Fold this sequence. Notes:
Helix content of chain A is 66%, strand content 5%. By secondary structure, chain A is mainly alpha-helical. Chain A has a two-stranded antiparallel ribbon. In chain A, helix 1 runs antiparallel to helix 5 (132-140). Chain A starts with 6 loop residues before the first helix and ends with a helix. Chain B is built from 6 helices and 9 strands. In chain B, the strands form 2 sheets. In chain B, strands 1, 2, 3, 4 and 5 form a 5-stranded antiparallel beta sheet that branches. In chain B, strands 7-8-6-9 form a 4-stranded antiparallel beta sheet, with helices on one face. In chain B, helix 4 (117-127) crosses helix 5 (134-161) and helix 5 (134-161) packs antiparallel against helix 6. The longest helix of chain B has 28 residues, at 134-161. The interface between A and B is large, with 37 and 48 residues.
Amino acid sequence: MTPEPTERTKQLAAAKRARAKERSELQREVASARRARDREAWSARREASRERQERGVSRALRDREVSLLDLVDRLLDGGVVIYGDITLAVADVDLLYVGLRAMVASVETLERDLGVSLTARGPSLESSALESSSLERNAFGSSPLESDALDSDALGSDAFKSDAL
Amino acid sequence: MLYIYAITDSATPPDCAGLDGAPLRTVGDEAPFALVSEHEDLSRQMNEDDLWEHERVVENLMQVATALPMRFDGSVEDEESLRRILAERRDEFLALLEEVRGAVELGVRALLPAVPATAAATTVSEAGSGSGGTGTAYLLARAERERAVADLTARVHEPLADVARRSAEGGSGLARTSFKAAYLVDRDRVDEFRARVEELESEIVDAQIVCTGPWPPYSFSSLERR
């Protein structure tokens, strides 16, 4: 026979249900807190990896630009030179023996070798893709590095612009 | 025409092709040899890819021999004139080959952050109490920058030169705004050199320091650079 539930047992059952409910609410809260934490951790990780990636990319990009700059510097300004490619003469004085393309490209070398500035330059010099000081500007994003150089001694720059380029 | 990539101590060309896929060969009966490729016509416009091709050929050669890289776009009409040049400059080339044997070149650049013109001008007008116009401000700012670069040079160059066999400072004499140098480093000290650069990078926070290479010894291939 089933005893009639007394007031006491009813109370106990209700308390039990309430506890169970509390427990399951607590569990839900814990679970949702855990999910939130996981979400945060995940997005933090994702953020960190994105930052890492961006840093890596910009660094790689910068390094690639600098590598090209260094390559241009070395190939057009360094290395063994064999004379006899082209002779530029002004008023019967031999000025320079270099390949014409190398000359257009390596303004810095010319400035050093001739002791004059070619940086007040004409369109033909600026249009050269390999012109070193423009690369230098691009790679470092700084203000024009050499454009404030002295305005030259006319012999050098004018002679070159009109005769050679 | 013969396009020249390098002067070398090896009669055997590296196992790759040259510019425009042309086969490589060496010229000379004894060291120094020249590494060349033969071309009908070299008057076409050279571009960035050609620079990398030239570089690639020299790097391949350096895997198997000692090399003095040629400046880009160096060519001679025929083999006879090249042989004459090799004979005339034999002593120079042999001496230079000896100097770079077993070493590679590393490039280092250091750049200070750009100073905004207005900031520089303000400092100056405070110091000069209003006398002097923008021209004075400009010159003073420039002098200040040159001093900063000289300071940077001292801090960067010394520790690196210690690890290197030789060094060559770059940059034109005009308006020095950054530090640039090349170092000839023994192959087995390259890692040590790079570690030094990294130390400097963390020590000197106000400058960007970049190290590239290893390169063929472009900056150590001519006597006039001394």
